[in-house]
Write a structure and sequence with these properties.
The chain is mostly helical and about 290 residues long. The protein contains 17 helices and no strands.
């Protein structure tokens, strides 16, 4: 008889962006040492997703397992200590005793993806081994505009567990990237999540992006405003609202100001600033 997966619900809460719910429901009885370590990784990654970096840094001490030390490195990186975090990361990855740890490799992939050093990220994630690593590979390949390689990673995930939440999410990401008739399939995946699990900002944004691709901007706006009620500072919600409002002919300056204040490094903020700089230079050249 198969052993029940005691962390099934906790993992799904995390994967779908219900981070506070994951933290609140993390007291799972009957866990062995490995499962308890995985539970702690999920909880601390949830705190990171909520922006509570210092809590993670202060609570994980030097005696903690490698997987938790890796999560602490991610928190340090996100606080701004990028150089120190990357230096420690490279040192640990070259250590034969811990370098193959799947959480350490996952964190390496996340950090180097943040750095837009996709080849370095793939160096540590491409061999896969866990669905988390394959899902990250899908994201990296989509960032590189290589949907063909992302599709190969998705097929590996489908062979491992076609119904897994991460497999379904990766499928939706790829469908959106490919576009066309695939958008409807992505929408149905997010709709299925909405029916099975608590509605999260991630699921609402997923549905909204599909709606925008299909030209249903009013429905997208409704979904995004619901997401904004859940988290008024979520960068993807704000960015998607800016795009949606432009298509609806509505003012988006307030959302852009919020995004600029809370997430100055967001790609939309940077690309807008770059365009403004180019425009100013063009004006000065004409003058």
């Amino acid at each position: 008889m198969a052993t029940p997966d005691l962390l099934f619900n906790l993992r799904n809460l995390f994967y779908l962006g219900a981070y506070q719910s994951a933290i609140n429901n993390s007291d799972v009885p009957g866990l062995d040492a490995d499962a308890a370590a995985e539970r702690d990784v999920i909880v601390f990654r949830s705190y990171i997703a909520l922006g509570s970096y210092q809590l993670v840094i202060s609570e994980i001490d030097s005696s903690a397992a490698t997987s938790l030390q890796a999560v602490k490195l991610l928190a340090l990186y996100l606080t701004g200590d990028k150089e120190g975090a990357i230096s420690s990361l490279k040192e640990w990855l070259s250590d034969s005793a811990i370098g193959s740890n799947p959480v350490l490799r996952l964190v390496a992939g996340i950090i180097f993806m943040h750095e837009q050093d996709y080849n370095e990220a793939l160096k540590h994630t491409h061999t896969g081994g866990t669905l988390d690593l394959h899902a990250l590979n899908v994201q990296i390949f989509l960032k590189m505009h290589r949907s063909d390689y992302a599709d190969k990673q998705l097929k590996i995930m489908q062979q491992t567990d076609e119904d897994h939440t991460l497999t379904q999410l990766a499928n939706a990401w790829l469908d959106i990237a490919v576009g066309g008739s695939k958008i409807r399939e992505a929408y149905l995946i997010f709709q299925d999540f909405a029916e099975k699990y608590p509605m999260t900002g991630m699921v609402l944004n997923g549905k909204a992006v599909c709606c925008m691709h299909m030209g249903s901007f009013e429905e997208a706006e409704t979904l995004l405003l619901e997401a904004l009620n859940k988290d008024a500072k979520d960068p993807e919600t704000l960015a998607n609202l800016i795009v949606c409002n432009l298509h609806l002919g509505k003012a988006s300056s307030r959302y852009f100001s919020q995004l600029k204040l809370s997430h100055p490094d967001h790609v939309l903020v940077k690309s807008t600033a770059s365009a403004e700089d180019n425009f100013e230079r063009a004006l000065q050249a004409v003058a």
